[in-house]
Amino acid sequence: MKKLIIFTTLLISTLGCAQKEETAFKKEGLDNVMVTTENTPITFAEILKKYEGKTIVIDVWASWCSDCIKGMPKVKSLQEKYPDATYLFISMDKTYDAWLKGIEKYDVKGEHYLTSDGMKGVFGKSINLDWIPRYMVVDKTGKIALYKVIEADDQKLFNTLDKLK
C-alpha cells in the first residue's frame, strides 16, 4: 500500500510539472511590435499573416548568442532538408545595427524581424522564452505545431516538419 501511495504521488507530481505545449500565440505576443530590416514597424500578427498558408519555422536568436551562432550550420542543413518551409528569424539583439551586422556576418537566410524589447520583453514572455536559440513550427493554418526545441537538429523538429509536408 505504501508503494502504491508513493507511486501515485510521483505520477501526479510528474504530470503536474510537464510543460504545456501551446498551440496558439498569446494576444500580447501577437500585438508585439517588431521591426523589419527596413526599420519599419510590424506586429507579430501581421508577420504571421504574411506567411499564412505556409509552414513556418521560427528561429528566435541573437547575434551575441554563442549557442545561436554555433547552431547556424544546423539551421542551414534544416533549410536544405525542408526548403518549402518559410524560415522566420526573430532577433533578440539589443540594437538595430548589431542585428543587421549579425544577419550579414553569419549569412542568415530567411525572413528577419527584430523584437522591440529583448528576451525578457513582451514577446519573450508570451512564448515563455528561457533560452535561445529557440525553434518553433507553425503549420499552414497558423497553429503552433511545435512549441519548443533548442537544437535545429532535434528529432522532434524533423518529425513535425515531416508531418506537415
Automatic annotation (TrEMBL):
Residues 23-165 form the Thioredoxin domain. Coiled coil: none annotated. InterPro entries: Thioredoxin-like_fold, Thioredoxin-like_sf, Thioredoxin_domain, Thioredoxin_ResA/DsbE_sf. It holds the Pfam family Thioredoxin_8. It comes from the Bacteria. This is Thioredoxin-like. The lineage of its organism: Bacteria, Pseudomonadati, Bacteroidota, Flavobacteriia, Flavobacteriales.
